[in-house]
């Protein structure tokens, strides 16, 4: 039987670079270069842009990578020009070109700016670093807001007295420091999302190449603008449209991202749809998801509301919510410990505990020691069932709103809460496997959720029905 071997050689972008065919007569391989047609024009474009695109583009990145990068490049262009205008104002404020300028004063001002900026970096990272991943869209846009605020302060500074100028420039540098932390962290998180093939390092390197080219073009255009624009009115006439364009492009860039992990807001949108019989796709949830809000208020499509929900809450937070209901109860109120024991009995087969006070709108999900990220999603869906507008708790809440004097939970009403918790738990546990499969089939990565925000805790049961004893 004659041997027939044909091999096509492709580069990392899928571009056909060579064809090999075995020649039985000569016993060797014939090499031929493919003649590309107009239909391969897209591959040619990718080939020429390869210094700026990840290898294997577009198959190596997610679908939202391209629109995000387009708007991100536009915002970088506008930001570069605005930055040059702001830098000129800073130079003027520091006395560049003035005979009255003092080198010592300028140096001290620079040291003060750098000091404030570094302190702001440390303080912001310490306070908010654990929230950035869960609210990456918010912090990505927040970074550009404070960056533009820094530009505005820079432009104002030359027209202030020396003390006001120093304070303004220090605040401006603090804003840039916040931008550096929020922007750098959020970009790293988005890069992880975009890198479908796990090529995070290369994607970041190519993103740096794109920014370099865009910034270079922006610098030349900005240099021309700065040389032509001199007056205060002219400067602001250029600065305001540039900042508006910068923020608009950033808004569009962040809005185009379709994250596949669950934070509080995305979980509310997704599970609210699940309870209504529909499993929303990444695109549907992304269109509904806000940017400026961080999901602190759990408002559903029908207006149901919880003021806060803490996933991975501490035991102290759980007890604090339970104690709220003991105030003003005639006679001996049921202790929080007794309620907690009853709650443990209800959830002894689960990897989480849930308590929601519909009166105050507070809810906590306590995670047990072996709780997984998927468990967090399951517990959050349970919370959504509990907050359903047709539940007895919601009806009871309506009555309390009509009569504030009855806003304190009585012990027998706690029995109703526990009974409804047990009822919704059974319903949630029964339906969860099918819901989980549907949600994952829609593209959601439940095992990579970011429902925990800030410091979170796990609990170990040392006694009781689900306790674990060291062997």
TrEMBL record:
Domain named Protein root UVB sensitive/RUS: which ranges? 48-275
Please name the Pfam families in this protein's record: UVB_sens_C (PF24160), UVB_sens_prot (PF04884)
On the tree of life, the source organism's domain of life is: Eukaryota
Q: Where in the cell is it found?
A: Membrane
* UniProt keyword list: Membrane, Transmembrane, Transmembrane helix
Q: Which InterPro entries match?
A: RUS_fam (IPR006968), UVB_sens_C (IPR055412), UVB_sens_RUS_dom (IPR054549)
Q: Name one GO cellular component term.
A: membrane
Has UniProt tagged this entry with the keyword Hydrolase?
no
Specify the Root UVB sensitive protein C-terminal domain's residue ranges: 339-452
Give the family, as the similarity comment puts it.
Answer: Belongs to the RUS1 family.
Under PANTHER family, the record lists: RUS FAMILY MEMBER 1 (PTHR12770:SF31), RUS1 FAMILY PROTEIN C16ORF58 (PTHR12770)
The identity of this protein, by name, is DUF647 domain-containing protein
Native species: Exophiala aquamarina CBS 119918
């Amino acid at each position: 039987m004659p041997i027939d071997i044909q091999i096509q050689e492709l580069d990392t972008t899928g571009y056909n670079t060579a064809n090999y065919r075995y020649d039985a007569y000569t016993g060797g391989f014939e090499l031929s270069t493919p003649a590309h047609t107009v239909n391969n024009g897209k591959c040619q474009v990718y080939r020429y842009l390869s210094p700026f695109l990840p290898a294997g583009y577009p198959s190596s990145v997610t679908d939202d990578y391209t629109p995000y990068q387009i708007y991100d490049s536009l915002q970088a262009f506008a930001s570069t020009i605005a930055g040059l205008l702001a830098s000129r104002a800073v130079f003027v404020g520091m006395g560049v070109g003035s005979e009255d300028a003092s080198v010592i004063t300028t140096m001290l001002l620079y040291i003060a700016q750098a000091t404030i900026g570094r302190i702001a970096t440390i303080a912001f990272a310490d306070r908010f670093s654990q929230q950035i991943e869960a609210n990456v869209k918010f912090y990505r846009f927040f970074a550009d807001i404070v960056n533009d605020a820094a530009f505005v302060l820079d432009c104002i500074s030359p027209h202030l007295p020396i003390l006001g100028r120093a304070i303004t420039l220090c605040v401006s540098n603090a804003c840039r420091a916040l931008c550096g932390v929020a922007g750098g962290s959020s970009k790293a998180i988005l890069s992880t999302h975009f890198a479908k093939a796990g090529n995070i390092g290369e994607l970041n390197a190519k993103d740096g190449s794109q920014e370099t080219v865009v910034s270079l073009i922006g610098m030349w255009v900005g240099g021309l603008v700065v040389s032509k624009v001199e007056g205060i009115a002219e400067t602001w006439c250029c600065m305001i449209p540039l900042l508006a364009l910068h923020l608009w492009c950033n808004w569009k860039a962040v809005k185009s991202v379709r994250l596949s992990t669950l934070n509080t807001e995305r979980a509310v949108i997704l599970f609210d749809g699940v309870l209504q019989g529909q499993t929303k796709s990444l695109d549907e949830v992304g269109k509904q998801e806000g940017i400026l809000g961080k999901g602190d208020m759990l408002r559903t499509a029908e207006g149901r509301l919880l003021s806060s929900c803490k996933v991975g809450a501490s035991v102290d937070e759980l007890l604090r919510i339970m104690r709220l209901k003991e105030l003003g109860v005639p006679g001996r109120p049921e202790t929080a410990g007794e309620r907690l024991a009853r709650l443990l009995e209800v959830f002894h087969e689960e990897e989480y505990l849930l308590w929601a006070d519909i009166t105050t709108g507070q809810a906590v999900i306590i995670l047990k020691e072996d709780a997984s990220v998927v468990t967090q999603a399951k517990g959050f869906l349970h919370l959504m069932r509990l907050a359903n507008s047709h539940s007895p708790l919601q009806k009871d809440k309506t009555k309390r709103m009509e009569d504030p004097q009855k806003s304190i939970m009585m012990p027998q009403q706690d029995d109703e809460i526990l009974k409804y918790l047990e009822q919704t738990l059974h319903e949630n546990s029964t339906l969860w496997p099918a819901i989980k499969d549907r949600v994952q089939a829609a593209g959601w990565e439940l095992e990579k959720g970011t429902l925990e925000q800030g410091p979170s805790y796990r609990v170990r049961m040392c006694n009781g029905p689900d306790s674990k004893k060291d062997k």
